[in-house]
Design goal:
Elements lengths: L5 H16 L6 H7 L18 H12 L7 H14 L4 H8 L4 E4 L10 E8 L4 E6 L2 E6 L4 E3 L5 E10 L2 E5 L1 H39 L1 E2 L2 E2 L4 H29 L4 H30 L11 H10 L6 H11 L5 H8 L1
Parallel strand pairs: 1-3
Antiparallel strand pairs: 2-6, 3-4, 4-7, 5-6, 8-9
Helix pairs in contact: 1-3, 3-6, 4-6, 6-7, 6-8, 6-9, 7-8, 8-9, 8-10
Length: 336
């Protein structure tokens, strides 16, 4: 995994922003693949860019501003899993060369010798599903039974009963990779969530500046000014926590530290995004709850992403079980 330098990060951010400002293309996913964004985590020898969580977060956050980030986070997790334990596998090659979607099915599936059995829910649709059972990474073909999520995205339920699967990798490295991918996935989802919160706040501030009530703009009312400042402050704090976690993840945090940093960051961003959505609806008034409101697609996306890979309560419980993130000062004190 190659950490982004400033020039590369700026180049990616500019190209993502340009795409987000442009018209919606008929085959959005194919365009994301053509840009290399969906398989950026695959190593260069496998046809990818060799980037990691910092690049994926930049891409997801930039596309989220136009509600076009689906399926960046899901495909990043699958590509990262393949990069860590099965970079030469057929799914990795198909993902990079053919643009086939690959998803990581999170959940419990078992089976020894007789195939995989179990029910895996809320799986992003893909041509190939990756399933971890014990210390084995397996590949299954995609299914056709789908449900629609609140934000319009499609999800699959994999009902497995002694299903034969291709084994891509075996051993303790698979379990370690899954733990790392979960943690990095939380940060990519958090980056997308925070982008939605920032856009909603921008829309709200513009509404307060332009909407007239009692002969003056809504922004002249002190109560609304205080509410907007609270949301702005929450966004700044969430951005600081997320950026710190991304920097640590790109720098190679130890597994325990990465888990704690990702739990802390996504819990903070979850709360910020939900507070911003509620505050935006309140300050937009009746306009905020309409389907035609510019807030609507961002609010729906927030509602879909907040539970994914951990609600705030779940993440805080996980954080409490493992302790707080060690700072550089803490490590120096321990070394002394």
């Amino acid at each position: 995994m190659t950490a982004l330098d400033d020039d590369t990060a700026r180049m990616i951010a500019d190209s993502v922003a340009a795409y987000a400002r442009g018209p919606v293309l008929p085959d959005h996913v194919a365009e994301l693949h053509a840009q290399g964004w969906l398989h950026c985590a695959l190593p260069e020898e496998a046809g990818g860019l060799g980037f990691g969580v910092d690049a994926a977060a930049l891409i997801a956050g930039g596309l989220a501003r136009a509600c076009r980030a689906e399926p960046v986070a899901a495909t990043y997790m699958a590509a990262r899993m393949l990069a860590l334990v099965a970079p030469d596998s057929a799914p990795a090659q198909a993902m990079a060369a053919e643009g086939r979607l690959v998803s990581l099915a999170l959940g419990e599936a078992g089976g020894e010798g007789g195939g995989l059995s179990g029910v895996l829910r809320h799986v992003p649709p893909a041509a190939v599903h990756l399933v971890v059972t014990g210390e084995a990474l397996c590949a299954l073909p995609g299914t056709t039974g789908r449900q629609t999520r609140v934000d319009g995205a499609q999800l699959e339920t994999l009902a497995l009963e002694a299903v034969e699967a291709e084994r891509l990798a075996q051993g303790p490295a698979v379990s370690a990779a899954l733990r790392q991918v979960r943690a990095e996935g939380r940060l990519v989802v958090a980056a997308e969530l925070l982008a939605h919160a920032e856009v909603m706040l921008e829309m709200t501030l513009e509404h307060l500046r332009t909407r007239q009530q009692f002969g003056q703009s809504l922004g002249q009312f002190q109560a609304l000014q205080h509410k907007a400042v609270d949301l702005y402050s929450a966004g700044l704090m969430a951005r600081a926590v997320l950026d710190g976690a991304l920097a640590g993840a790109s720098g190679g945090l130890a597994p325990d530290d990465l888990d704690r940093a990702s739990c802390r960051a996504k819990a903070r961003v979850n709360d910020c995004a939900m507070a911003t959505a509620r505050g935006a609806i309140q300050m937009f008034g009746a306009l905020g709850i309409t389907e035609e409101s510019p807030l609507a697609p961002h609010i729906k996306r927030v509602l879909a992403l907040v539970p994914w890979l951990g609600t705030s309560a779940e993440l805080r419980r996980a954080y409490a079980r493992t302790g707080r993130v060690l700072t550089n000062a803490d490590r120096k004190d321990q070394a002394a």
